[in-house]
Design goal:
Three copies of one chain form a homotrimer.
Chain A: E1 13-18, H1 26-37, E2 42-47, H2 55-65, E3 74-78, E4 89-94, E5 97-102, H3 108-111, E6 118-122, H4 137-150, E7 159-161, E8 174-175, E9 179-187, E10 193-198, E11 207-211, E12 214-216, E13 230-234, E14 239-244, H5 249-253, E15 260-265
Helix pairs in contact in A: 1-4
């Protein structure tokens, strides 16, 4: 049940999803800003290994984890090549959670599920760092706003309401009578290939993936495919995934992000 | 002193050791599940860079850090190529700490020190996520079980007692009258080569490592080996280690995990 | 305003900056030691990807993040090739914050801003681990000292006052009438090249960077340089930085740490 924004209490948890990496001190600077405002904030690193400048990757990441967090959690999502130039910073209330980041499409994946209930353009400098750089709004705007929000400041205090958010053009799978044409959307740490083909498209249907004129039948666990080469299943995020049992499917097949995947329904 | 399981109170700390890497949101999903059940849980990342599918590496990791944690700490250890297929999920009480993970050998290193005092096969779905995937029990079973356990639920609530746990076949060093033959067990971030030769085997003895017919004498600190090429010492985990002062011993020697190391006692 | 050391209360936050990497359990061991002494400590990873043995990189990191933390925060900085051999371990009170690490130059960057107000050589074994290895003082000395300090133990309890600290020889930019000659000090996750040329040197002046006889004019945001090749700006840390919009400047220019950068004032 969606709560009116006035009744949504912050959980005290702030998650971070960025392309800042783990080598530099950018994340350390942001955490210092947050803790200087709210020493009790619980900061959770989702990942800082989003490919640099890759807005769609950040967007896909968001829709994979938000739902596991308690209501009132604040999610910072910062992949921001346009920082300081021509995009707004925004604070969104969506499905009993808060999202903060640049208005450049990083929230596309959740906005495709449902519209944002409240959008605020971040304009109230009272909640920013005293000195604001042109190149690191993560530290100077998004971090302090998240910390003040986590302390219970009303979202309407942070700026002026907006009607719309930037969205990326997302290529959805193409479904004809017995074929679905999708693509590889993500390659995980194991080399598993996540497609953009949602389990809803395959519900109650038998199907095979076609690769090099070979039919690959789905299994339900990884180990069922032991010694069977490339295989596929519906993964824990609800998407069709290609994998190789105890192997790196991306390396073995040379398939890469964006490559087409064809599914035949039976 | 070992406490009876009924008297062992959770410390509120949950540690994570996995092969999930830092690029994906798997860890972020697990942390959300834990915090949704116990917002006060203190989650500590040990490492998510275990080599994918490498159960023995996870097992070795566990025995290197558990003892530094307060009693009642919960250690999640998840390297799980057989997820959803043919292994149980288990919860173990061992030496005043709790361990949770797949029953596939990830706990071998601690079980070699002492048997588990209580083993529970995780079967009570009341403490699992409502929807359980076949491919991510870390999120759907182990994370929620750890969170409920950290809130004080009795370990006997989570399933049925088991008598035995899976163990890997571990090759121990071979000791004859004046020789010890071991192998390289781990290569650390500095390129230092950890052998499986425990300091107990070398206690009160003079010794040298033999490499390419050269004798390498042990030192007691890294810097003693400045400008002296490859050297060795007993490291902070109590194992014989080969190193190169301010250099990367693995790269310089081309030695790798599993390679044989010979020690002559004097 | 600087507080006398007796009035500086610990914030409960302990930050970690090391060259230990994310593959091993070294950090996990240290966190266990800290939490066993002070379960309420808030441990923040700044980075563990300092280049192994690279003391100047750790020193530069420290000055980039300390100021964002609340007063009374404890910063552990551990790049320590001389561990156990010929350097002291120290605890410093500087500008309302505490710093702990080896006395080998890791604190040079902050000491160039102002002298340490109090320096303590860590000698009181009461606050160390019971067993002290020769190769991992991070776990056996610095971690427990930080935890006890975070609980309010007076810094004078940990050892004896020292007058001086080791400092690295830092090459500062060379300024003549209309030229500044500096060098590349850091390459960040995006391939941006941080120079050691501070904005103070460029204040109220027009300037260009000279590379291959070409003049590169500064911009104020990254995106202004879209489709313009290599560009420069004053970055969020207050240093002159070379970058390439949505590209990796280090890879594209082959410039590397230590390379000379020439600026002409206009």
């Amino acid at each position: 049940m969606k709560k009116p924004v006035a009744q949504l209490k912050p959980s005290g948890i702030i998650t971070l999803t960025t392309d800042f990496g783990y080598h530099d001190t950018f994340i350390g600077q942001m955490k210092g800003v947050i803790l200087s405002i709210n020493k009790k904030a619980k900061i959770i690193d989702i990942t800082h290994h989003i490919t640099p400048f890759c807005i769609d990757e950040a967007s896909n990441a968001v829709s994979s984890f938000y739902k596991y967090y308690p209501e009132g959690t604040i999610h910072l999502v910062i992949v921001d090549p346009g920082v300081g130039y021509d995009r707004e910073g925004v604070l969104i209330k969506w499905q009993n959670q808060f999202f903060i980041g640049p208005d450049n499409g990083v929230f596309t994946s959740i906005l495709m599920k449902a519209p944002a209930e409240t959008i605020i353009a971040l304009t109230n400098r009272k909640y920013f760092n005293p000195k604001i750089s042109n190149t690191f709004h993560g530290r100077d705007i998004f971090a302090p706003v998240s910390a003040w929000l986590s302390k219970g400041i009303s979202i309407f205090e942070f700026g002026k309401p907006l009607d719309n958010l930037a969205k990326l053009n997302i290529e959805l799978p193409n479904k004809s009578c017995d074929m679905i044409i999708g693509h590889i959307q993500h390659i995980d740490n194991f080399g598993n290939l996540f497609t953009n083909i949602d389990e809803e498209l395959l519900k109650d249907r038998n199907f095979v993936i076609i690769i090099n004129n070979k039919e690959i039948k789905p299994v339900s666990t990884y180990k069922e495919a032991k010694n069977k080469g490339i295989s596929c299943l519906i993964n824990s995020s609800g998407y069709l995934e290609l994998f190789f049992y105890e192997g790196n499917c991306a390396n073995l097949t040379k398939l890469k992000k964006g490559d087409t995947i064809s599914v035949r329904l039976k």
